Amino acid sequence: MGTVDIGSLARTRALHPEAIAEAAARRRRRPLLGRTGRLMIVAADHPARGSLGAGGVPFAMANRADLLERLCLALSRPGVDGVLASADVLDDLLLLGALDGKVVMGSMNRGGLAGAAFELDDRFTGYRAEDIDRLGFDAGKLLLRVDYDDPGSLRTLHSAARVVDAMAERRLPVFVEPFLTRRGGRDGTGPPRNDLGAEAVTRSIAIASGLGGTSAYTWLKVPVTENPDDMARVMETSTLPAVLLGGDVGGEGGDADAAYEKWRGALQLPTVQGLVVGRALLYPPDGDVAGAVDTAVGLL
User: Fold this and answer.
1) Which of 3, 106, 255, 278 could be 43's S-S partner, Cβ–Cβ 3.0 to 4.6 Å?
2) Are the beta carbons of 292 and 55 closer than 8 angstroms?
3) 170 in Cβ contact with 139 (< 8 Å)
């Protein structure tokens, strides 16, 4: 991996903050879907929600130089279409010249901080629709976790619907990542856990598909179900195009092969158009970022 000069980035930010907008303005764009009709996006929006662990290391993503080096390497590999990240990361990548000819997806709601009491009241503290439009980015992404026992979920649901409308007004795709979520513990105050059972994923897809005044620009970003054999039935819930998400496969000894196998089968389904994967590729158990990315690209 190449070396990122953090000092140089900081000096540019301090002395020439306008350089970020200038880099965005001259960025060479491309269609969302290329000639293959498939999509391979690397995700790096976790830090903005205070979720810094990866590969079994609690603060792996807190080293910004290391994260940027991993992202630049991933983006340089054949078949990688683009990146999903929050503004600070995308601004760095713009200054590094790493986004030319790539799909750029802005992460929109990061207010549901990991471990916070208000985690499921997931306010839109990241990109707005007007920001994505102004910067010439290609799409937005929002996280939609719904806990039937948490009133904060209703606020998130309502604001998510309005974001779907705002993106559609600008003819910009928005990727909705839905989950049915429950807090653990007997008193219902434990950390939220996403339910990946077939019934829960089916309901989450149905809810996400119906957001807003039109679904014309809505995509789904969905997990593979606990039992991968359920995915064919689950994905029959909607005609919206979808991508699969991938989480962290853990540190040394993490079963990356099992994750790839889950994706392989689901990628054959008619509405599934590709992958959006972050930590599993950027922090693989064997440390080989290029190898992990190439393997994922091969699944497409």
Assistant:
1) 278
2) no
3) no
pLDDT tens per residue across span 106-136? 999 999 999 898 888 899 999 999 999 999 9
Please count the residues of the chain: 300
H or E element at residue 178 = strand 174-183
236: Cβ contacts below 8 Å, ≥ 6 apart: none
- Residues 6+ away with beta carbon under 8 Å from 268: none
Query: How many CA atoms within 13 Å lie on the side-chain side of 110?
Result: 21
pLDDT in tens, 181-224: 998 765 667 788 999 999 999 999 999 999 999 999 999 999 99
List 179's β-bridge partners, or say none: 145
Q: Give 254-285 pLDDT, tens digit per residue.
A: 567 777 888 898 999 999 999 999 999 999 98
pLDDT at 253 over 50: no
**pTM for the predicted model, two decimal places:** 0.93
Are 221 and 140 contacting, i.e. CB atoms less than 8 angstroms apart? Answer: no
Provide the token pair at 79. 């078949």
Among 188, 264, 198, which Cα is nearest to 227's? 198
| DSSP string covering 230-250 | GHHHHGGG--S-EEEEE----
